[in-house]
Amino acid sequence: MNVAVAAGPGGGGVLRPDGQAARAVAELAGAVRELEAGRPRWVWADTREVYPALLASGVRLTRCHDLTLTEGLLLGYEGRYGEPHSARAAHARLHGLPVPEDHHGPRARQATLFEEEPPPPDADLVAEVHADQLRRIESVEDPGRFRLLVAAESAGALIAAEMGHEGMPWREDVHDTLLTGLLGPRPVHGMRPAKLQALADQVAAAFGTPFNPDSPQQIVRAFKSVGLPVASTRAHEIKKIDHPGVAPLLAYKELARIYSFHGWVWADQWVRDHRFRPEYVVGGVVSGRWATSGGGALQIPKVMRKVVVADEGWTLVVADAAQLEPRVLAAMAGDGGLARAAGQTDLYQALAQPFGGERDNAKLAMLSAMYGGTSGDAPKLLAVMRQRFPRAYQFVEDAARSGEEGRLVRSWLGRTCPPPSARWRELVSGPEGSRAARDRGRFTRNFVVQATAAEWALALMAVLRGLLPAPARLVFFQHDEVMVHCPAELAEEVVAAVDRAAEEATGLLFGPTPVRFPMQALAVRCYADAK
DNA sequence: TAACGGAGCGCC
DNA sequence: AAAGGGCGCTCCGTTA
User: Fold this and answer.
1) Would you indicate the residue range of the signal peptide (predicted)?
2) What is the distance between the alpha carbons of residues A422 and A407, in angstroms, rounded to a whole number?
């Protein structure tokens, strides 16, 4: 059973169950809660516009179909990546009407200040676009997989909203102590923290002239002035230079990053009531990985993990998928030898034997195959891979070839990479053409693996969400890692749920396969204790 | 003054 | 000879 939903102003809305007329309700949350008992699939234009208000009213839903995300997936599949994919845009295309631009991004947001907001989609529009999407899904090469993709992406939208609602535990006091220890007390506006200033002074003294260590250009000039020209100011380059200014400069760069990225100002904006609430963007990365549009949740430095502490009497279950991408490749390529190795807990160790018994060599070979790496020993190791694991090798080679030739590649479930730009087509027939072709080949080579890994992770989360015992909550997700916040006495049950979810996700995507996808799940009081 | 690209580096 | 994929975020310094 599907129920089309449109949220109206003032907490009201319109509901349209399959085969029935739309009906307006004064209090949407209450009406939705009632219907949820029948476990319908909620169909709406955009989860971000409807679900947060429902969550705020205490309503949680099992499943949905997000028209905007689905439209993006379908357009991508149809080779029309990047066209407007809101429900309104989809509706307009259906009727040959002018297609409204998606409004996101700072420029578009500003424009809407002066233009009239488009009216919210109505339930009839929602139902019509949904029907059209279901038709289009039936015409892709493997509708069953694509349906799974749409379900997983939509579940991701629910989860992202729920995680935003719940927030990740974040101890402001521990954060402040950490910052003060590293940087000195919080400075008054416009000043550098004491320890940062002291390092800047040491750098100036070492070079004999003050300069702004935040400026790469000025760093280059400073090294030049002491007779030590540098090609770049990257840490690993600077590290090699023998000069008294190097140590304080590197220390400055490290601390300055913490100060500006995850310092007090950041906390003022993103942390409230002991919770860090970032804004996740489902499918924000072309490969289907999530992105964030604020808070930088996916780039929290490891030193900050000690700030993430479970509430009193609660625990954090932190689980990450081990060696996810090579396992995904093994499952997709149907490479018997690689799949057998991927049946082991340590895939790289299981692979070591053909690579001279060196686990590191096996790892480098796999990474080079998936990333298109060619430096150092990679060519030699790739030759071994080609011989011993021909199907896996051929799988990524085919993806690379498709990219080089300007064709599209797809993930296991059907997420499609963007087509090459007009600029690329120009470049590729010019003098620098081989370089452009190789770059795109590396992109598509990686896409098929990374995008399928993202699908596995999404499926894992969707299954896990359904298995979690109340009041356990997913509170963080980062590519191949999930975090659950739960009462301490539920920890064991949650760890078991993670294992089961990994198994079910594997079955959903790949069916029977010898490849295992082990999750390392640990119950900890503090995130920093998980690694 | 705002916008933008580049540099650099955090995460996977 | 060397050649790694994907992001977000902040700073700088230039340009519009």
Assistant:
1) none
2) 13
CB of A439 nearer than 7 A to strand C:
yes
Instruction: Verify if strand C has an atom below 7 Å from the CB of A266.
Output: yes
Section A261-278 average pLDDT: 90
Identical topology for domains A172-267 and A277-322+454-530: no
pLDDT at A104: 54
Domain ranges for chain A, please list them.
Answer: 2-139, 172-267, 277-322+454-530, 324-452
CATH fold, domain A277-322+454-530, is Alpha-Beta Plaits (3.30.70)
Does domain A324-452 match CATH 1.10.4030.10? no
Protein CA A20 to sugar C1' B10 (Å): 51
Contact partners, residue A449, CB within 8 Å, separation at least 6: A325, A328, A329, A332, A370, A396
Residue A423, token pair as written in the block: 């600029």
pLDDT digits (tens, 9 = 90+) for A192-201: 899 999 999 9
**pLDDT one-digit tens code per residue, A53-96:** 999 999 999 999 999 999 999 999 999 988 999 999 999 999 99
Cα–Cα distance for residue pair A399/A379, rounded to 1 Å: 18
Chain C positions with a protein C-beta closer than 7 Å:
2-13
Nearest residue: Cα versus C1' of C2: A375
Q: How confident is the model at residue A121 (pLDDT cuts 50, 70, 90)?
A: low
Per residue in A140-179, pLDDT (tens digit) is 999 999 999 999 999 999 999 999 999 999 999 999 999 9
Order of strands across the sheet with A481-487?
A: A473-477, A481-487, A314-321, A519-524
Distance A1 CA to B10 C1' (A): 44
Q: What is the pLDDT of residues A203-221, one digit of tens each?
A: 999 998 888 888 888 888 8
Choices 3.40.1080.10, 3.30.43.20, 3.90.1150.10, 1.20.1060.10: CATH for A172-267 = 1.20.1060.10
